[in-house]
Amino acid sequence: MSFRTYIYLMALGTLMAWVGWGIVVLNVNPKESGLLGFGMFFLTLLMGLLGFITLVELLIRLYALKRHEVVIREVKVSFRHAVWLSLISILSLIFSSQGWLSWWILIVFIVVAGILEYVSLIIQYSRRG
Residue ranges of the domains in the chain? Predict the structure, then answer.
């Protein structure tokens, strides 16, 4: 798959996720839908955030930072960062909706994501030799 095709497919998937999220927000009553409604809300929001953050970070890495040597490496890093940021966002929203979110829980989320990113970097650099 070419880089241009990847960008188009990721943008299309992200757009579909945001449209799905909008449909859920406009048409689902959280008091009547129960767990399925909340699940669809957070799942579509997660997919929308994941695609949006990936595309924005990838464009920043390629054009603002001018890293054009190995594009697939930049795609992997952008996607990995988007996963961590999206998960932190969604977990924070879920915890907040249940009344469980406090500043120290948010710090724990960020520290765990930082540790996982550090482990990912160690694995990535050990594979390069």
Answer: 3-128
